[in-house]
Each structure stands twice: as structure tokens, then as C-alpha cells.
Automatic annotation (TrEMBL), chains A, B:
Protein family: Belongs to the GHMP kinase family. PoK subfamily.
EC number: 2.7.1.169
Sorted UniProt keywords: ATP-binding, Coenzyme A biosynthesis, Kinase, Nucleotide-binding, Transferase
Protein name per its UniProtKB record: Pantoate kinase
InterPro entries: GHMP_kinase_N_dom, PoK, Ribosomal_Su5_D2-typ_SF, Ribsml_uS5_D2-typ_fold_subgr
Length: 310, 310
């Protein structure tokens, strides 16, 4: 029996502001904007077959068994990535499954960051799955191909527009043009920071993105122009606060926290799209909150290790 | 007196194969090809004024004082980057220099890797200088702008064509199209490896690049086509060995080492352009050499820290 497994890490990503750019082709769809990638992120381990006793877990539509922090779960974009890479078929058959036994592909997702709160967990899981599955099953795709596959999966599922390409770059990415490699274009703010964050609950990306995004996108374009004229971190934070107000996305707890940080002469903004506030340095601590603490992440998503015994 | 300093790290880069693409515009000039970025690299500390007693060091043409591993030295591309960023003027005046005192901008370059041996030290120094000087002197350039400035400096000085963009990306970069951001395009091999290397001496990049590169570039294009069809690390190594032979660049000590590693069932190739052999895993150790050991570097060049007291 072959043993195939690999692990990848993708940083979290808080979007500071964005404009939505739908397109019939998922690779060309995306968002423009900017954000911070975080050292808190998502680790994805892909293994199959025979690596896991999966009998007590439920296989998803793709035939893969996914766990999220040890519990059975489903991430649509992850299933999509596995299907595109031919690692799990749409009919539920894992690849190379013998007639007698049908062992299951397992995807174990571990997150340092809250789900549904604006940290790009689904994008990170999709990108980490693409990198790990490519390695474990020796699919021979290039980095850009894997980024495109994860981006298309996110866009198709309506769970994100710009996290994947940002998480693939790392640092403090500026999404200059929307879309996957070959379509989009990225730049970055050449800086680094300690980042604090507090989450007050979930906010549905799908609900916002499926509504009218005209006013939101106009505000996002203004914020991007401002940052590109002055690609510094304080400018990113100012532009983010203006965007949240102009796009009418601020929720009360987040607005209150941003004000409290400002009163303590710090810099904070809302993570798009989540009931989450993030601050530079010790902004939230200084304002009396008890935040999670991390750093901007110096690199994009990467394979951590891999093993194949064909 | 203001205190301004910042430190940046840029990974080393061994080019496996390349084709040369000169252009009148340095930003559009470059090379196509592939290589490995290394965790051994170059750390650049930019500081001025008043941070260093520079009286016993000699200022270069740009007015900057450069040290290389603690010794006075000059790197043309570094002087060029400082001049473009307005940090040191071509007439030798540092910025904001008072009439009475003319304190000097200091650039301290520390390398883990040999100079002139195919590790892209000049490119790494130029890129590290761009990142650190931008931070120390609050120049407000974006990452892409800083990469372009460092790339243009390398190309103008004739010391490299593709190292800077590779070192800005990290990992195992594929230079799909030549040139700086906005002109070139990159992809990557989604892998990682332990890397061993041995250097037998210097080889002049300028001498090779200023000669007839027609046959070399044809061999480089073939190697790139091969890798893009199969973006895996073993294929990169095979393509690199074929390129070195076809382009007639192999030097005897390197050829001997590559053969010895192959006899020990390892993978080795020549670093372009240097009298250097690099191998995956324990290839050179297994063949009886006493190599330096590092890893592919997961990220591109980054600011390490910065401090400004305006």
C-alpha cells in the first residue's frame, strides 16, 4: 500500500478594504484592495490512503474526509480543489481505490484563527490543500497553477475573492488587479508589524458579496488609490477605517473598539468581512482589550513537509 | 540629530539555467530561467547619519560607506540603489547633510554566501539595500517599486539579470518572462529541499553576459520549456545539468563534483554563474565533499527591523 501525505501552511489574511470584480471566468474574477497576512494561519495535512482510520467520519461530496481542528467538517473550496487535482472524485471515489477496499482521502485542517470572522480561513484551507495534495499525490503542478486552482475554488463557492492570492504572496499584499496569476497583479507594503485582534462573532461573506456591491466597490477603489499613492502601513489603516464607514459595513462592537484604540493613540481597523477588529502593535492591549497576538507573515503559503512511498 | 536605520534580509539565489534578454530599458531587461533561493543570504543594515563613526572608511561614488562582512568595500548596484532613492547623492553628499558636518550614510552588508561564486550576492545586497533604505529614510516606495529599483541597478551595472526578482519571490522561482515587476512574470516549483554547496572560486558574470549569449540562451530556453512542462525539482536539476553542458559553461572541478554526486545517486548541478556546485539533500556529503548546508528559503527578501526618530 502506498503512503502519501504532505503538510502545508497558509497565513491568515485580514482584508482592510476591497472592491469586488465579478467575472464569468473564476480565474479572472476577484477583488482589488489590501490587507495583512498573519503568522496565525491554517495548517493542512493531506493523507491517503491507509493513513487514517476514517470509518467514523463522513466523507464530503468529493469523497474526501475533512476535519477542522479535529472535528468532522466541510469546506466547499477544499472539496473543489481536491476534485480539480483528481485527488477525490465527484462521485465519492478516492483515486486508485481498489475494488475491495475504498480507503478515503483525508484532509486535516488546523486553524490558529477564528472561522467566519474575516481571516480568510476558507482561502487558506483551499490553498494549503492545493499545495499539500499536489505534493502528496505528485500532481506536478506549478505554484501559479495551484494558486489559480485554489482561487477558482473560492470564487466558485462564493466564499472569497481576494484572500487566496494575498495568502500566496504573504507580507502586506496590495491587490492591484483582480484575479489569479495570469490575470491579477499584486504589489505590497514593504513593512512588518505586530498585530493584535479581537473577534466578536461571524459575518457572512456570501451574504455581502451576493448583494449590491456598487457603493462598497467605489469606496474600495478610493481606498486603494490612496494607498497606492502612499504605500505605508499607517495610510493602509486610515484608508481601511474610511472604507468601513463609507461602505456602511461597520458593526457596533468593532466601531467601539476602533474608537477605544484611537483614544489610546493606536491604529485599528475592521477585518473585511468579519466582526473582527485588528490593531498594529499593542493598540488593543493599550485600549484594555485582551487580544490574540501575532505578526504579519513574511512569506506566502508554503509546503511544510511531504512524504511519498509509491 | 535624527537616527535612522533599518535591516533587511535577502536570500541567496543559485541559478540553475537561464536565457539572457537584454533591453534598452533596464526594467524590461532580464533573464528567463529557474533556480533555488537559499536560507543562506545577505543581511543589509542601512544607517545614517550619526550611527557610525565612518571617518576611517572610504565613501563610494554615491557618498555611501559600504562594508562587506566588516571590511570596506564597494557594490556598484548598492550605490545605484541609494542614489535612486535619494539617500546618497552622486556628488557624494548624504541627504540632509548640514553645511558644517557631512555625516555619511553607512551600508553594512553581511553575507552567509561566497561573493562572485554564483549566489547572487550583488542582487541580494541591492534588494536588501532598497528595502532597508526605504524604511530607514521613510521613502514610501511599494515592494514592486523597490524590486524594480534593485533590478535596474543590477542590470545597469551588468552584474546580474534575474537574481533580484527571484530573491524577491523566494522559494524555487521560475522566471517565466524577463524583467522587473510590471514587465516580467514569475512562477515557482512548489517544493522545498535541503541544499548543499561547494565553491571552487569565482567566475565573472560580467564577462559571460557581455559575450555572445546566443547558444547559451537557446540552451536556456530549452531547459525552461522542459521545466514548465514538468515543474518538479528533479526535472529542474536534470535541465540544469543539460544547460551547463549545452551552454559550454561547465568547469572541470564542478563537472567532477556533479559526477561524484551522481555516482552516489544524488542530484547536483552548477550554479550560474560561479565555480559552484549545489546538490539536493545530502548529495555532496554522500559523495565525500565537505559542503556548506542550508535550505531553500520559504520567502522572498524582507525587512527585518527598522527604527526612525525623525
Amino acid at each position: 500500500m502506498s503512503r502519501q501525505r504532505a503538510t502545508a501552511f497558509a497565513p491568515g489574511h485580514v482584508t482592510a478594504f476591497f472592491s469586488a470584480h465579478p467575472n464569468e471566468r473564476p480565474a479572472a474574477a476577484g477583488s482589488r484592495g489590501a490587507g495583512l497576512t498573519l503568522s496565525d494561519g491554517v495548517t493542512v495535512r493531506v493523507s491517503a490512503p491507509g493513513e487514517r482510520a476514517a470509518s467514523d467520519l463522513t466523507a464530503g461530496l468529493s469523497g474526501a474526509v475533512t476535519t477542522i481542528d479535529g472535528e468532522p467538517g466541510t469546506i466547499g473550496a477544499v472539496d473543489e480543489v481536491l476534485a480539480v487535482l483528481g485527488v477525490a472524485a465527484a462521485d465519492g471515489s478516492p483515486p486508485n481505490a481498489g475494488a475491495a477496499s475504498r480507503p478515503t482521502v483525508t484532509v486535516d485542517v488546523e486553524t490558529d484563527i477564528p472561522i467566519g470572522a474575516g481571516f480568510g480561513v476558507s482561502g487558506a484551507a483551499a490553498l494549503g490543500t492545493a499545495l499539500a495534495a499536489n505534493e502528496a499525490f505528485d500532481r506536478g503542478r506549478s505554484e501559479n497553477e495551484l494558486i489559480r486552482i485554489a482561487h477558482e475554488a473560492e470564487v466558485s463557492r462564493g466564499t472569497g475573492l481576494g484572500d487566496v492570492v494575498a495568502q500566496a504572496r504573504g507580507g502586506i499584499p496590495i491587490r492591484v488587479e483582480p484575479g489569479a496569476p495570469g490575470f491579477g497583479a499584486l504589489d505590497g507594503v514593504p513593512s512588518q508589524a505586530r498585530v493584535e485582534y479581537v473577534t466578536f462573532g461571524e459575518l457572512s461573506t456570501e451574504a455581502v458579496l451576493s448583494g449590491d456591491t456598487t457603493a462598497l466597490s467605489a469606496a474600495g477603489e478610493r481606498a486603494l488609490d490612496r494607498l497606492r499613492e502612499d504605500p505605508r502601513l499607517p495610510t493602509l489603516m486610515t484608508a481601511a477605517r474610511e472604507f468601513a464607514a463609507d461602505a456602511d459595513l461597520l458593526v457596533p462592537e468593532v466601531a467601539e473598539a476602533i474608537d477605544a484604540v484611537a483614544d489610546a493613540t493606536g491604529e485599528a481597523a475592521m477585518a473585511m468581512l468579519g466582526r473582527t477588529v485588528f490593531a498594529l502593535g499593542t493598540g488593543l492591549s493599550d485600549a484594555g482589550y485582551d487580544p490574540a497576538v501575532c505578526q504579519t507573515h513574511p512569506s506566502g503559503a508554503r509546503l511544510v513537509d511531504g512524504e511519498r512511498e509509491p
